[in-house]
Amino acid sequence: MTAYSSLDTWVEREMPPIDVLMVWHAYTLNPTWYAEDTTRILILRSLRAIKDRLLTSIVKVGDISTYEPSPERRDSWLKQYGTPFDPIAAAAVMAERIVVCPSCVAEYAAPFVTQDGTGYLQSKFISKCPSCGFAATKESLAVLKYARDVTLDPRNTDDVKRYGYGVYMAGTLRTITQPTADSVAALLKAKLHIVFKPPEGAASKDEWAKAITTKVGYSMENFQKQQAAVFANGMQRSKRVMSAYIDDRPFSVELVGAVIRQCSFIDKMTGFGWTESGAFDGPEDEVVLQHAIARYHAFLDLMSSSPGSFFVPTLDIDLAWHTHQMKAELYQNDCIQLVKRFVDHDDRVEENHLATSFDITCRAWQQRFQVPYTHCGCPLPGDTLGQRLAPLKHRLSLSSSAPAALMPPRRADALGATHASEHNMVSLAPLGEDHAAVAGQKRRVREEKVQRRRQRDEKLVRDGKMDAAAVRPAYDGHQIAFLYPVPFYAPPVIGCVASASGCGGFGGTGPTGGGGAGSAVVSLRSLAPQTVSIDY
């Protein structure tokens, strides 16, 4: 794709099919990976060049479900990529993928789908190389991808000329304050070259890569064990790097799952009526978006006031946040300018920790802005864990009164949108324990806690100490808050410390998978750090 000066021309000549837009959308909602991949990976740099074309083109065409490309666009797509423009028609003709054998590095075609479930797009993928007979799996393909990246050398001018920032490993180029920390990434690569030295007499990088894959037995777990010394002081970064290598595709995000995880959020937006054409055309409707943007501003302010805290967004905040992320370059610049670090979110966190973090977010919001965080009817946390916020109290306090804009309009959709954003949850259980039993027990404990809060609120209503409208009955179908939220994590500002035992203190988070939909274009240019500035 290329960046034409005219948006109309770009939409006419370059806009991809809707399935590609869905994947692209999910990709941008993993902002750290998207930013690094479009810098590091050659074939993805065109995405960086076209900046916010995804968002602006969707706004331009309006209802994307009824968009029809011109015959010329259909023909050009077919000619350039060899598949029909229509996703369903394309799926019917796409039968196989070219893979590289992890053992002999010969290319061959692997079927996408087989009757026994071993196709490339299926969960039990396994494919025998016709040249050497090696049975390739997604893991062994990932091992080869990792090994090939290891062989690229930042000190080799030919490698740098050919691959640019691609000479560095995924997950090592960016820090929370530096978009291209190449000195950090180069140090880590040098350490990897000590562990995985090229074999004597190796005439090519493929021979070196094959030696590495053989050494680790085509196992990512063995890779992690053998390079443990490289990440001795930064195991979180080790996990992040390894998470980018799950198969042979170039992306550092598992985009199939990232797309699927959008369904829950989009269902919520559809339930509010916010995905309908013209939903925000009237002034009385637009105020709902203005409120969402105001709360997103405040959410960033909350994060900037407490850099090491783990905060969780609500649905309306998520809508504005996701829209901002779709303006990828602007989002990066705004984060650095306003928050002094790059803001990412991590959806691989144990679910009980997420629930606790949402309670902490509610308390922090109340402390800083003197208004409740949610207005959807879910019972808010009380003061039983207030001591957890004691270290934050001074930083969270604002001298001025809370902006009125943080109180939602008194309409069902605006109130409902302050419910916790519940998609993109990855449930984790301690090793050696039954996953379902552990997760189920923790959910029951949380449900009991919510019921106690409901009973507390009902008593306050009876005593005349709480507005009855603020208490939603448990039987009206409104689900308990924060079963499957999108976590928000702003790690402390730390740099990379080079030491004899490795490179530590990278900061950052685990693999991300954000999601969402909407067109509330957010501009934070006028928002100073630790200041909420809303103009209606």
Can you walk through the features of this model?
- The protein has 536 residues and is mainly alpha-helical.
- The protein is built from 22 helices and 8 strands.
- The strands form 4 sheets. The protein has a two-stranded antiparallel ribbon.
- A hairpin with a 2-residue loop joins strand 7 and strand 8.
- Helix 16 packs across helix 17 (315-326).
- The longest helix is centred in the C-terminal third of the chain and has 28 residues, at 435-462.
- Residues 383-396, 426-432, 473-477 and 482-536 have low confidence and may be disordered.
- InterPro entries: GRDP-like.
Keywords:
22 helices, two-stranded antiparallel ribbon, mainly alpha, two-stranded antiparallel sheet, GRDP-like, globular, 3 domains, 45% helix, 536 residues
Rough outline:
globular
In N-to-C order, the SSE pattern is: HHHHHHHEEEEHHHHHHHHHEHHHHHHEEE
Low-confidence stretches: 383-396, 426-432, 473-477, 482-536
Total DSSP E strands: 8
Roughly what fraction of the amino acids lie in strands?
Answer: under 5%
Per-chain topology:
Blueprint (H helix, E strand, L loop, with lengths): L6 H7 L4 H11 L2 H10 L4 H5 L3 H9 L9 H11 L5 H7 L2 E5 L6 E5 L15 E2 L6 E2 L1 H14 L5 H7 L18 H14 L9 H11 L4 H7 L8 H9 L11 H6 L1 H11 L10 H23 L4 E2 L3 H12 L1 H12 L11 H19 L23 H4 L15 H5 L18 H28 L25 E2 L7 E3 L2 E3 L32
Antiparallel strand pairs: 1-2, 3-4, 5-6, 7-8
